[in-house]
Amino acid sequence: MIFAVRGSRLSQRVERDHGMIRSSKEEDHHDRYRGAGLRHVWHTGRSHAHLERKALDYALAVAGCDLDWQQKNALMTQYNDLERFADVEPGLQRLKAAGYSMVVFSNGSPAMLTAIMDATNLHTYCAGFMSVDDVQVYKPSPKVYRHVANRLGRPIESVRLISSNPFDVIGAEAAGMQASWVNRSGGVFDTLAPPPQSVVRSLIELADTLAQVLGGR
Length: 217
What we know:
By secondary structure, the chain is an alpha/beta fold. Helices cover 49% and strands 10% of the residues.
């Protein structure tokens, strides 16, 4: 089981600290932020850290936010130390108790992932992380999902991606991987493909659903 980590708390910090992002959905502005980053990645091939900064600039412009460079730097620093959603720890506890092997899988750099795992104590539940830096191709390329399955030493169809990013879920399923979409905000799935069979509102619900359907690992 592999988990995609995303900075969905970053947009909430902009709203909390600067009072400038106005949205009825907590994910809306982060999706703009993430989508901009992905477009830059695909079209320029620049580093993920550089592209995250450019994506933040884009999302702030769309949201009508005017932050100075110090405020932007503070936000980017916080990207590696974001609060976990309330369901994360109890959900991971249940999944670990059920016997699942779990790793983090991300477009982020090894340095970013190391900082995030240290800050959020994910080492308690996950065996480590895998970065697309290993293959120099970004999600949702099929190559990265096949790479993860190979690293795990398992057939790709036996590996499940857990993500709140529709594009990631679509990429994983297209590569032959199982996938679960964590839809905390009650948003709409990307129209590029139908939602996966497994759609949950939290990691707690995910653990309960897998226990009912699969009876554990």
